[in-house]
Write a structure and sequence with these properties.
Elements: E1 8-14, H1 19-31, E2 37-43, H2 46-53, H3 62-79, H4 89-96, H5 99-111, H6 116-128, H7 137-146, H8 151-160, H9 164-179, E3 187-191, E4 195-199, H10 204-211
Parallel strand pairs: 1-2
Antiparallel strand pairs: 1-3, 3-4
Helix pairs in contact: 1-3, 1-6, 2-9, 5-6, 5-8, 5-9, 6-7, 7-8
This protein binds glutathione (GSH).
Length: 224
């Protein structure tokens, strides 16, 4: 009898404020059925990760910031995603931030984990493609609607996102990431013989090796 190898758990700990994480998210979604892995999407709060790890957002170094905005456009093409730099990137990332979006996403995840993927994608589309707000309840509501949530579900998640249970779950995933040594987003944990943490959307060849799978580039279906 053929033995089917057990699926390996891969966790993506992430915050939609991070454009690089959008690439990692879409690649993992594209590979989730192709690779023998059980993908777990775990929203965390990047602000908490930065504070607790003593890190600083890379765009605080002006040359790095400039480089990143150029690189993001090259990466958008490479990953085939409609990324566009917002008019005021630092305002969007630092002043407005992502706490309300991540709490909303956590509430969605706790209500129905099958909706975490489409709602995350809609939030990225807003902040990193259409330069739209992700702070106001109306903005979150629109993201939820486009992701296929009902009006009742959206209302419920907006209310729940103020509750301790949701705030605590967001803190829990943030602490989990820190316990693996996280300092940024995306943080990927591959549960192989032991958990291995990878940082970045540029480590997929390594993840493939860890999982004993084939890396077919960022758009695997184009190679069918
Ligand atoms: N090289 C990584 C960069 C990812 C990255 O810069 N992530 C930011 C958030 S958008 C971060 O958390 N950086 C922390 C750091 O670079 O120390 C990639 O290509 O994905």
């Amino acid at each position: 009898m053929m033995r089917v190898p057990a699926r390996k758990t891969v966790e993506l700990l992430y915050d939609v404020v991070s454009p690089y994480t959008w690439f990692a998210f879409e690649v993992l979604c594209r590979y989730q059925n192709r690779w023998n892995m059980d993908l777990k999407l775990k929203p965390f709060f990047l602000g908490g990760i930065m504070n607790e790890s003593g890190n600083k957002p890379p765009a605080f170094v002006p040359n790095k910031g400039k480089y990143m905005y150029n690189e993001l456009q090259l990466l958008a093409k490479h990953y085939n995603l409609p990324v566009a730099i917002p008019e005021d990137p630092l305002g969007v990332m630092m002043t407005k931030g992502s706490l309300s979006a991540q709490r909303f996403l956590t509430a969605v995840d706790m209500m129905d984990a099958t909706k975490t993927e489409p709602v995350s994608r809609e939030l990225w589309m807003r902040i990193w493609s259409r330069d739209e707000d992700i702070v106001e309840p109306e903005s979150l509501s629109q993201a939820g609607e486009r992701a296929g949530l009902t009006k009742e579900q959206i209302e419920n998640c907006l209310n729940k996102s103020k509750d301790k249970v949701v705030k605590d779950r967001l803190k829990q995933y943030t602490s989990e990431a820190l316990s693996y040594g996280a300092f940024g987003s995306p943080t990927i944990i591959a549960h192989v013989d032991k958990p291995v943490m990878l940082f970045g959307s540029d480590r997929f060849p390594i993840l493939a090796e860890l999982l004993n799978e084939k890396w077919l580039g960022p758009i695997p279906d184009s190679k069918l």
